[in-house]
Each structure stands twice: as C-alpha cells, then as structure tokens.
Amino acid sequence: MKFDQNSKVGDLLANDAAKAVVDKHLPGFSTNPMTGMAGGFSLSQLAAFPQAGVSAETLALIVADLAAIE
Prior knowledge:
Elements: H1 9-14, H2 16-25, H3 43-47, H4 56-67
Helix pairs in contact: 2-4
C-alpha cells in the first residue's frame, strides 16, 4: 500500500512502517490518546488544524518519508 498526504491517519497507524514515520516527525503521535479521534482524517486534513501542530514543512517531510515505504 502506498501512503501520501491523502492517507487516513488510521491507516497510517495500522502500518508499522508508516507509524514509525509519523512518530519520527511527530514524537508520541501514535500513543497520544487524542489521536484515535483523528483516525478518519487524512494526513493533510489533520495538518489543516492548528491544534494538531503539523507545519507545512513537517507534512512535506512526512509525505516524503511515506513515499519511500514499499
């Protein structure tokens, strides 16, 4: 499965490699109790919420690393 900015947070967290990428750039994201509520959002939708704390630069880094997952 290929991952990108349109991938759902729940799908990212269900895949060990994708979860590691997200946690690399957003430490503790996968273990944050609030993350469960974001499962249906795409990565780019989540980044649009200022409360999520995902800058455009961080989103770009996550997407680049996700693209490298086979």
